[in-house]
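Below is how a single chain appears once it has passed through the pipeline. First comes the sequence as given, then the structure the pipeline wrote out for it. We keep one example in the README because the format questions we get most often are answered faster by looking than by reading.
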Amino acid sequence: MTSSTYNPYENAQAQFDRVAEIIGLDYATRQLLRQPMKEYHFTIPVRMDDGSTRIFNGYRVKHNDARGPAKGGIRFHPEETADTVRALSMWMTWKCAVVDIPLGGGKGGVICDPRQLSEGEQERLCRGWVRQIAWDVGPVIDVPAPDVMTNAKHMLWMLDEFETIHGGRYPGFITGKPVEMGGSLGRTEATGYGVVYTIREALEGMGIDIQNTSASIQGCGNVAQYAAQLYQELGGHIVSIACWDHADQMAYSYANEEGLDARELPNITDRYGCIDKSKALDMGCKVQSCDAWIEQDVDILIPAAMENQINLANVDKISKKVKIIAEGANGPVNTQADKIIRNSGIFVIPDFLANAGGVTCSYFEQVQSNANYYWEKDEVLQKLDQKMTSAFRAVRDLAARGNLYTRDAAYVISINRVAHAAKMRGWV
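Resulting structure:
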C-alpha cells in the first residue's frame, strides 16, 4: 500500500520548510527543527523457536525535546525504514505541540513482520529492543508507546525488561499498557475518538448535521475501528472501509451503500486490522479494488492506515461531494497530492491534529502512572474531548484569521511553540 519512491522524511521536511518560510524562522532554528536531535540504530539478536538466531534492525529517533520528554510509538513493520522513523518523530513533535502537552517528539521501530513471529519470538524481540536502548529512554527522557502492529502486551514486556534492568518500578516509562498494569482507561479509543471529535467540530463550523453525512475509511485497525464506532454513534453513515488482506497480500475496499455497522468490525477483523473477506461478504459487503474507498460519493474521507495513501495516482479520484479529509494516519497525503487538495475547497484536518488523541491520552497515562493515581474513563474522555476541541478551534481560527490552509495553520502553531521553547532554553 506504500510506494517505494515515496520518502516520508522528505515529505515531513518539505511541510516544515514551507511553514518556516511563512513565519520567517531564522536559519539556526530551522536547522535545529528540520532534523532529529538524536538517532539510535541497532541490531537485535533474537533466538527463534527453532533454535536459530535472527538479527533484526531496530531504531529510536528523538526529534526534539525542548518542550518535555520525547514521546512516540514503536512500530513493528516489514517495510520500516530509518526515514519513516525520522518523519514520524518529527510529526510527533508537532503533534504534542499543537495540542499543547509538555512533551517532545520521538519514534521507534523494528523491521519485522510480527504476523510471521510466534508470541515467544515477539516477546524476545521486545525485550531485545529495550536492552539496546534502556539507558537512553525513560519516564523523564523518552517515553515509548504502541504503534503499527504493536499492542499492550508488547508494551508490558518492554516495561518489565526496563524495570528489570533499572531495578525498580517505573510505570511511566511506557504508555499503552494493559489497564490492570498501569494503563489508562480510554487509551484504546483515544486516537479514533480524537479523529471524530475534530470531524464533529469541523461539521459544526460548516453548519452541517453529522447525522446527514456519510464517510469512507481506509484502515481497519484500532484507529479506524474506534473512529467508525464513535462516528456511527453520533449518527454518521459509513459506506466503505478498506484494509490490507494478509492472505492475498493486497488491499481491498468493502462497500455497502446501506451502511456498514461499525459495531461488527471487531468481529470480522483480526488483531492486525485485516478483514476476513468471507465474513465481510456475509455482512452484505461488496469487495472492491484497494483504491475504491477514495472514490466513494461521501462527505468525509478518513485515511487511517499508512503514509502516502493519497497521492498523484489517486487524488483525482476523490468525489466532488467530499467536504472533509480527516487524516487518521500519519502522513497519508503526500506533498504533491496536498497541493491539489489545498486548491480543491476540501477542508483538511491534518494528521498531527486529527490523530493527536492518542498521544494526548498517552500523556494522561504517563501523568497517572507517575502519580500512581488513576482516573475514571469518563474523566479521561472528557479531558481528551476538551484538549482536542481546544486545539482544533485554535487551528481553525488561525486559518480563518490568516487566510491559511489548515495544515499550514496547525504547523504555524506547533512550530512557533517548539521554536519558542528552544529559544527560551538558549539553544538557538
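The CA atoms of residues 32 and 102 lie 19 Å apart.

See the next section for the split statistics.
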